[in-house]
């Protein structure tokens, strides 16, 4: 079952590339969260998306938001990807795709993990969902527009 706008976002605890464990509940009552699911580290579309989030990171900070990227890649893969592109936000390892499944992120052509971004407010409610595998850069502007309206 897919998560819809207005639903409470499912909590999670996943390992990040810096060795920490990140939980959605860490931010509840404090900051909105931009949770973006992407197919694979260091592939063309995912690199464009990650670097676009990086290039707009100051705007996300000004909006008071936390950016979290999620894929099924290992922590080690995330470490290499984050270092290579100087990514200032956490990449979470969802090996086994349990979080992806709990959010209902669809696969494209039944094979490619989807590219979906969730904007979650301070209270933990999903305020916006943007799903576009091919338009990776649009995820950033969509998220900022919603954050600015919260």
Automatic annotation (TrEMBL):
Q: Where are the active-site residues found?
A: 46
Which key words tag this protein in UniProt?
Answer: Antioxidant, Disulfide bond, Oxidoreductase, Peroxidase, Redox-active center, Thylakoid, Transit peptide
Major place of residence: other
Pfam families xref list: AhpC-TSA
Under PROSITE patterns, the record lists: THIOREDOXIN_2 (PS51352)
UniProt catalytic activity: a hydroperoxide + [thioredoxin]-dithiol = an alcohol + [thioredoxin]-disulfide + H2O
Any one GO CC term of the record: cytoplasm
EC number(s) on file? 1.11.1.24
Q: Where does the protein end up?
A: Thylakoid
Give one GO term, molecular function aspect. Answer: thioredoxin peroxidase activity
What is the enzyme's main class? oxidoreductase
The UniProt entry's GO biological process terms, in alphabetical order, are: cell redox homeostasis; cellular response to oxidative stress
The Thioredoxin domain covers: 3-150
- List the SUPFAM superfamilies: Thioredoxin-like (SSF52833)
Quote the subunit structure annotation.
Answer: Monomer.
What PANTHER family does the entry give? Answer: AHPC_TSA FAMILY PROTEIN, THIOREDOXIN-DEPENDENT PEROXIDE REDUCTASE
- State the protein's purpose: Thiol-specific peroxidase that catalyzes the reduction of hydrogen peroxide and organic hydroperoxides to water and alcohols, respectively. Plays a role in cell protection against oxidative stress by detoxifying peroxides and as sensor of hydrogen peroxide-mediated signaling events.
**Similarity-based family:** Belongs to the peroxiredoxin family. BCP/PrxQ subfamily.
User: By what name is this protein known?
Assistant: thioredoxin-dependent peroxiredoxin
């Amino acid at each position: 079952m897919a998560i819809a706008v207005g639903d409470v976002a499912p909590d999670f605890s996943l390992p990040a590339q810096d060795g920490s464990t990140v939980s959605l509940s860490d931010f509840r009552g404090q900051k909105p969260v931009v949770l973006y699911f992407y197919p694979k580290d260091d592939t063309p579309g995912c690199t464009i998306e990650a670097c676009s989030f990086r290039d707009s990171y100051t705007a996300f900070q000004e909006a008071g938001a936390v950016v979290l990227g999620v894929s099924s890649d290992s922590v080690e893969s995330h470490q290499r990807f984050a270092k290579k592109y100087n990514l200032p936000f956490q990449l979470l390892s969802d090996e086994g795709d349990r979080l992806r499944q709990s959010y209902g992120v669809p696969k494209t052509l039944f094979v490619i993990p989807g590219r979906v971004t969730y904007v979650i407010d301070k209270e933990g409610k999903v305020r916006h969902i943007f799903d576009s595998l091919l338009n990776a850069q649009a995820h950033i502007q969509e998220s900022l527009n919603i954050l600015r309206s919260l």
